[in-house]
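Hi R.,

As promised on Friday, here is the backbone we talked about, encoded as structure tokens. Could you run it through your design pipeline when you get a chance and send me back a sequence?
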């Protein structure tokens, strides 16, 4: 699947203003509102659009921000990231190459800053970490470059790997689900049925 001209226009409009109404997007892209809505839903379902968050400035609420680089052995990095993700003051986090976790944390006082650093230091398997206090944001552009024809890589809903080639699309409860292979499809259907059954019995 590739982004077509309409998808890429919708994404560019949203990157400029995530609160743009369907009506305004339809007007700007020459589509109807229901078409914009359907395309947007599809872009969310395949994982191209993750969300529409408000960008609230921490310093305006009296909060400091610090950047963290946390190092562990590459084989431990996933477990380290899981433990770090539990800390409420760590707000953004990514696993990078070389066993590094790059994170951003906020704090409301020096004591809180120290407690975050202590908590990170006490996570098992963390080898070392550095922290740098945020001084000034100089640039903040949407990360993804949007263009017509950009290939859309989809994650398998079951194994979470990027789907190579044509995805297996199945329709469950009026929604499309994408799987990488017949094995994942079978397991996913099983899991989906179990979850539904459990929800129905509660
Ligand atoms: Zn899969």
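Update: got your reply. Pasting your designed sequence below so it's all in one thread:
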């Amino acid at each position: 699947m590739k982004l077509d001209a309409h998808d890429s226009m919708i994404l560019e409009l949203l990157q400029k203003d995530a609160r743009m109404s369907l009506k305004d997007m339809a007007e700007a892209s020459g589509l109807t509102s229901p078409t914009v809505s359907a395309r947007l839903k599809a872009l969310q379902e395949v994982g191209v659009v993750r969300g529409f968050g408000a960008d609230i400035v921490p310093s305006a609420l009296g909060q400091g921000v610090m950047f963290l680089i946390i190092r562990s052995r590459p084989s431990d990095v996933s477990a380290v990231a899981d433990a770090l993700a539990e800390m409420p003051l760590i707000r953004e986090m990514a696993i990078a190459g070389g066993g590094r976790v790059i994170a951003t944390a906020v704090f409301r006082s020096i004591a809180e800053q120290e407690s975050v650093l202590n908590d990170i230091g006490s996570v098992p398997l963390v080898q070392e970490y550095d922290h740098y206090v945020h001084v000034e944001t100089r640039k903040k552009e949407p990360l993804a470059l949007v263009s017509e024809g950009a290939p859309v890589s989809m994650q398998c809903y079951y194994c979470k790997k990027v789907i190579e080639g044509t995805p297996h699309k199945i329709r469950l409860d009026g929604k499309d689900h994408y799987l990488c292979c017949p094995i994942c499809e079978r397991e996913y259907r099983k899991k989906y049925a179990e979850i539904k059954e459990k929800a129905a019995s509660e």
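One thing I noticed while checking it: Residues 182-201 form the longest helix (20 residues).

Thanks again,
M.
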